Amino acid sequence: MVIVMQSNASEAQIEGVIHALEKHGYEAHRSDGKASTVIGAVGVGIDYDHRHLTLLPGVRSVKRISEPFKLASRGFHPDNSVYTIGNVTIGGPEVIMMAGPCAVESREQVDVIAEHVAKAGAKVIRGGAFKPRTSPYSFQGLGEEGLRYLRDAADRNGLIVVSEVMDRTQIPLLCEYSDILQIGARNMQNFTFLKELGKAEKPILLKRGIAATLEELLMSAEYIMSSGNQQVMLCLRGIRTFGTHTRNTLDIAAIPVLHSITHLPVIVDPSHAVGIRDKIPPVARAAVAAGCDGLLIEVHHNPEDALCDGPQALYPETLVKLMGEVRAIATAVGRHFD
Amino acid sequence: MVIVMQSNASEAQIEGVIHALEKHGYEAHRSDGKASTVIGAVGVGIDYDHRHLTLLPGVRSVKRISEPFKLASRGFHPDNSVYTIGNVTIGGPEVIMMAGPCAVESREQVDVIAEHVAKAGAKVIRGGAFKPRTSPYSFQGLGEEGLRYLRDAADRNGLIVVSEVMDRTQIPLLCEYSDILQIGARNMQNFTFLKELGKAEKPILLKRGIAATLEELLMSAEYIMSSGNQQVMLCLRGIRTFGTHTRNTLDIAAIPVLHSITHLPVIVDPSHAVGIRDKIPPVARAAVAAGCDGLLIEVHHNPEDALCDGPQALYPETLVKLMGEVRAIATAVGRHFD
Amino acid sequence: MVIVMQSNASEAQIEGVIHALEKHGYEAHRSDGKASTVIGAVGVGIDYDHRHLTLLPGVRSVKRISEPFKLASRGFHPDNSVYTIGNVTIGGPEVIMMAGPCAVESREQVDVIAEHVAKAGAKVIRGGAFKPRTSPYSFQGLGEEGLRYLRDAADRNGLIVVSEVMDRTQIPLLCEYSDILQIGARNMQNFTFLKELGKAEKPILLKRGIAATLEELLMSAEYIMSSGNQQVMLCLRGIRTFGTHTRNTLDIAAIPVLHSITHLPVIVDPSHAVGIRDKIPPVARAAVAAGCDGLLIEVHHNPEDALCDGPQALYPETLVKLMGEVRAIATAVGRHFD
Amino acid sequence: MVIVMQSNASEAQIEGVIHALEKHGYEAHRSDGKASTVIGAVGVGIDYDHRHLTLLPGVRSVKRISEPFKLASRGFHPDNSVYTIGNVTIGGPEVIMMAGPCAVESREQVDVIAEHVAKAGAKVIRGGAFKPRTSPYSFQGLGEEGLRYLRDAADRNGLIVVSEVMDRTQIPLLCEYSDILQIGARNMQNFTFLKELGKAEKPILLKRGIAATLEELLMSAEYIMSSGNQQVMLCLRGIRTFGTHTRNTLDIAAIPVLHSITHLPVIVDPSHAVGIRDKIPPVARAAVAAGCDGLLIEVHHNPEDALCDGPQALYPETLVKLMGEVRAIATAVGRHFD
């Protein structure tokens, strides 16, 4: 922690700050400059609330130094985290396509879509059995029945499964049917839930909240990792801004920024970021060009009648065309799709 | 719903939209203007995804007409909702002060603070027994023991209790000790949780998420109300913007806006909105001047040693001074503190 | 400036940073802690781009210490700036009401409104002769003719004038007719313009840009002040957020924050912040309760036919009612309207 | 315009709205539905302030139908606008690289950089002679001398020039030396300036303001176009969000969105969007993958000593590497660099 004193701070005020630091067990390094005195505090517990110092007389500003997260930090774990799930490897040079319907609607629906996405080159099928809907009057998902359909369709097509778990009580059920547990953006800071996920034995796909900073996203990953589960993937799905032309705004630069501060794989969900079919492929291409480790895309063979988010589902043939484009882009940036 | 066709839309495209509407059971009203054709769709279920129409050929834009929420709407329930809890009435002409520590730390701590806030004129004591902390390494609360201390301190001082419930498994415990169940901003869209709260028999204090629109806040209230619990209060605690001088940005105009679109009481939490002690009283005064129904404020007799959010806790004497100011302001706007 | 090295930074990297600092003429203070090495740089020119250091090997983060503005800073000028313009004093204990139409439309219109606002207790009349309109097809103002009407109406009613100057070529004309030069939010960072305003001999009302930080607002004030004009007032008129229920979001906490970091008066414009008539009085009351030094409000006797922003103009009788409320609120916070 | 009445609106209120519309010369189309009555208003002047209707009794909401811009609209001009400037064609299948220093510092500096960027494959050299700096204490540019250096360096290397014009008084000078006039984000809504640019005979590169909506950006283009200059290019350079890891947030989806609503070319400036050297190439690649028509990138052979924005300038060799990547990506999306 670094404490910057006001230019007119008195000697007593400076000593007051040093005293407060030592009282909390920190080592204080004082440097007096022309403009102002700066005090470096070393050995700070990451749980200390630096605003305490902000309120001491004579203090102008306080800056935290140590990152609040450890296990998720690139400094702590310099190499990329790579997870092998079944015959799929995430976090390596290969970029992974994860595709499927927003919601599992029927056995037929998921069978048809699974076959389409497998043929197109996806390795993972996505699909929700429990749907978090903004409206209590919307379709809420098929529950376990949906998970069974999804599992069967995946197995028949050599795919692995990612599906959302909405609260801690659903964890055992999802672990039974899904290979990757998806945590929705709205649950990113549901901390009691994150701790339970730390005990699950499946990799976690953690979505960034629509107003979460990258530091908060990594703190949430830290909750899971510090509870025992090291297999966390981050998923970008757009942040909320003043923009209204798309559902959310994809923070494209977050891809290289995350790769520099964390070792966790970064997946991008252009479907939720953009929210309207025809604008999704350009954004998906951009995410691969920026270096993401995977894409999570909604696909439906009959989106007009989809029970959930049809307007942001790609047609199977659009996915095929997109795969061709992203294969070439991946090569251009030193990556590849299998 | 209103569908605006592109100026160059063909007759076939216009009929295509009308056909799509009727297929979904809506009544279509067509009006042809010089600039473009407008189609009014009547009888649209609030669950229909209007983006479907956006994707039809010839459509320029689609506007939803009916509000997606009913029970929370002022149109559905023209009079203010007023709740009487013990000897406290919330939502009437009286403005209510809810004050107390961020977290219950010990029996002594909560006893001292309860006495201070009761003397100052608060009717409700706040205090967390389960703390959602951004960091897994931070103090997480005393749990049931803390609730017992809080209940006892409240009873001894003629106060009622508001305390946060973090997930559905904690609901029965909180109902046993707390008069009002507080739902944190991070849980505002935790829908499985909201449904369970609809079965609880305690009033709910629902906090606005840091990036939630007012419509989303009311949709979350709708989740609770449509599950059976009509006693919902809304709580504003700041939204996330590009600003960095305060913890969050209090959307002060949301107070009159909410009063015009919903009948639910509006409480303001300036402590979390601002996040730094010396800026909280001016914002608390502003909230009362703008017409809020209550304030939720953090107070601590020894904030330097608080285990949680000490820097945003008011000293008891500051609360006393603030009460004097807000009493006069309430009178100026036709309200009163008891 | 404070440079925080990565935990695994090499001795050579640390020396590299110290060398770079000294090369630019700064004094380096090194403190080695358990977690990492921190280097305090003293004597850093405020023009130095600290991102240079961010890019040096081994550096984790760089924090600027000295505020980038001087003349506008409370540290440089501890007492409030108070300006006396005619018989009006701005920045003292008195809160000032500035009111009038969005645009001057005719001699009759401004005469009628001037009489209303003077009777209501306003000291300053506002009115635009040159209108910055988002659309090139909108009414653009009466120009000098409008200024003449405004001046005459002000003189007849014992008011002073504030009117917007849109670019440097208009400065002499505005100085001739207006007592205060208003700079619109869209021009807040039009730097060549700000420098010219530094040579004007009238006080400046500088509006915060809709996405400007408080630091950027004060840097723009610094442009004017460093060019010779010390009489600057700041005006808050709402920032752009994801919210859509009001035109902009008033950052209410910016009032006490600005009062703590600068000595310049803070005026609030609730009309542009909110943008719809019925929500403006609650927000105006809130601004006074939070400690603003003045209000800038749009008033029109016949807003239905106003050529500009009629829907956000108060009726004269609403202004009278609002004045009664804000007088009482000002008293409650130790201020007063005359 | 579409007016939605409240469900409980009286017949008198409905007629009141129809009367108001007809009074302003609109044709009213009424459709009565179960939920509410909807009134379509046809023949609306785009300058009418629809908030007037919002305030009439019984009105729930008012939606504007006609786009407020014409000349910039894809509907008005279905084909892409293509500009040929010297031997450079912008807006066609070719993607254009525009590169150069933030500021012209000396004849030598711009000569060296011009040679580098021309060799790398850039067609346009960028460089500022007048610099808008947030701080009045920062380097403000060489003025006309700088323009002369830039022009000479461009001519010697077969490049064309883009340089920023900061206000109307500089237009003639910039027209003399520069092939494209760049308008900074801070001037995007400086309307008197935009009108003057409409009389200039050079193409305009109009940057999106950091908090401007796409509609506002197009309205500003409309100012220029309606004043006579049809050669406008749009430039995306990042918007302001709550994010702090990069200077701004590039709204990547705005590229396909703009291509769908306007015929104007879309250029992307990743240097200002990201603000830190090592994160710029991934974002530049993303912009090409998303379909932009050109890139505007800062390059400096000695950024450590640059007088402006050195930390966001690419090294010449990085530009060479980036060109190789974006060439391949352009091909993957059906475009090409020459």
- Tell me about the biggest sheet of chain A? 8 strands, parallel, barrel
Per CATH, what is the topology of the largest domain in chain A?
TIM Barrel
- pLDDT average of chain A, as an integer? 92
The CATH top-level class label of the largest domain in chain A: Alpha Beta
Beta-strand fraction estimate of chain A: 15-25%
Low-pLDDT parts of chain A are none
Number of helices of chain A: 11
CATH homologous superfamily classification of the largest domain in chain A: Aldolase class I
Helix proportion range of chain A: 25-40%
Nearest-angstrom radius of gyration of chain A?
A: 23 Å
Tertiary shape of chain A: elongated
> Would you list the SSEs of chain A in sequence order as H and E?
EHEEHEEEEHEHEHEHEHEHEHHEH
Tell me the greatest interface: C-D, 51 and 51 residues
CATH architecture of the largest domain in chain A: Alpha-Beta Barrel
The overall strand count of chain A is 14
- The largest beta-sheet of chain A arranges its strands as 7-8-9-10-11-12-13-14
Number of domains of chain A: 2
Derived from helix and strand composition plus strand pairing, the structural class of chain A reads alpha/beta
Instruction: Give the distance, in angstroms, between the N- and C-terminal Cα atoms of chain A.
Output: 46 Å
Quaternary status: homotetramer
